[in-house]
Amino acid sequence: MQKRWNILSANPAEVASLQDSLKINTTLCTILAQRGINDYDKAKEYFRPSLEHLHSPWLMKDMDKAVERILHAFNNQEQILVYGDYDVDGTTSVASMFQFLKSLHDPIDFYIPHRYKEGYGISKIGIDFAKENGFSLIISLDCGIKSADLIAYAKSLGIDFIVCDHHLPDEIIPAAVAILNPKQKDCNYPYKELCGCGVGFKLMTALTEHLKLNTEAYLQYIDLVAIAIAADIVPVTGENRTLAFFGIQKVNTKPSIGIEALLNLSKAKFPMSLTSLVFVIAPRINAAGRMDDAKKAVQLFIEKDPTAAITLANILHSDNTDRREADSSITIEAMEMLAADPNNINRKTTVLYNENWHKGVVGIVASRLIETFYRPTIILTKSGDYAAGSARSVAGFNLYEAIHACRKYLLGYGGHFAAAGMTISIDQIEAFSIAFEEEVAKTIQPDQLIPEIVINTEISFKDIHTSLYNIIKQMEPFGPDNMRPVFIARKVKDAGFSKVVKDLHLRVVLKQEDIILSGIGFNMADKFSLLENSKPVDIVFAIDENEWQGNTSLQLKIIDLLPASSAQND
Length: 570
Known about the structure:
Elements: E1 4-7, H1 12-22, H2 26-34, H3 40-47, H4 63-75, E2 79-84, H5 88-102, E3 108-111, H6 124-132, E4 135-141, H7 148-156, E5 160-164, E6 178-180, H8 196-210, H9 216-219, H10 222-231, H11 238-253, H12 257-265, H13 274-291, H14 295-302, H15 306-339, E7 350-353, H16 362-372, E8 377-383, E9 386-392, H17 399-405, E10 412-415, E11 419-424, H18 429-443, E12 452-455, E13 457-458, H19 466-473, E14 487-494, E15 499-501, E16 505-512, E17 515-521, E18 537-548, E19 551-563
Parallel strand pairs: 1-12, 2-3, 2-4, 4-5, 5-6, 7-8, 13-14, 17-19
Antiparallel strand pairs: 8-9, 9-11, 10-11, 14-16, 14-18, 15-16, 16-17, 18-19
């Protein structure tokens, strides 16, 4: 699939000023300026993260009310229920808050709603459970901001709520005792992009300060915060980057017993990065909720016995294997359905339904199909008497608005710019599919149907050296809004040693002027012909390290390449 190359620019005055104060090369200064790091102080904070950079939790609206209500519960021996969503952000939030509060108070318990029996967020079943078991305070994490009716129902039963959430509030705000959410319009907290676990971390910080506890009381859970940041795809900027930096340090030096068991079982390579947390930890935690019950994930995170932790890790590992098999087989079936449809090639959307598909993996399947057919995609399966499913978008296209425009066909829907979920009557699927295709065709821009590669800046081979790479490493952890730098090098030629490996990958040895560098292009065997006969190409790549027989050297991780004469310059 052809991709668009989008080469970013930077303010020349900012780049020159940075170069003057930091004394590092223009290439790196360009990338820093693109990320809003445009003076010495910002650069110092960026390259030297410190826990002192974290904002005071008391700046968050309602923090004083939340702390006061929890202390009241402590003093009156109230039963507290820690309630969170079934995804990684929710389960890490619950595990950290439950352990923190349990060290200070008893009785306390935690609750994770069942994905299929209760659905997302606060549930009536969960509130009824709290009432039947004598809980008078619920602390919700990663959910609750959109649950005004259910929180009012809880209040009628004599149950108070403290909401810790990071999702965008509706016009109607729940009548909770306290709502901790930096995205509230009247919240002056300086950093708005915390994940749910991050908001919970702030509450633990405030309680620690108020009770004059050792900072380790909350810092011991910073590895769970890093996992939540990685999995929830929040911006890796500001506080998130600081929390992730120190959380990854803990994962690599002194992880909790549960995390260590999961890492050992998955044969993880150390040191872990934020990206490896996304691919190693997150799928195994998410699989618990997708395939069965996410309470197991919390139990793993809070487990103190290594043997029991290994047992729980094995269960999650097994769930993830089942999840992989399910999403692989469903993806194949979905691809076959599209191949059999003669009209598929002209469509701007994909909407597929099969009553036998596993509800827990339809979102993953939607993402897989986008890798081949780059367009807004909805995968539906039977759920009770109705169909339910997940939608995924392509970069820059507001999926939620398109679904909202077709709402008359739906029983319910929710989500955001890039992803959504929905429920629909089975007899309305075809009509919805037609309406959704028409809406997207009308509103999507042609270039949004072509995958984009964002390139930071051009670089020459002569400027690629160990000192450059060492500074790039200091830009970690990488993630949204702080991605690994991507470069373009022009008029590069095969040095005569490039080859295809395993019929899939491209192993290259390239030269530009007198400088020779090697690299790997995964699943790029089809590009080999572009290198034949020493034809010049423009290549897009990241800089990485390659370890072989104890020796470490720099290598190019090839992302794309085009003939030099036709390479895009936008």
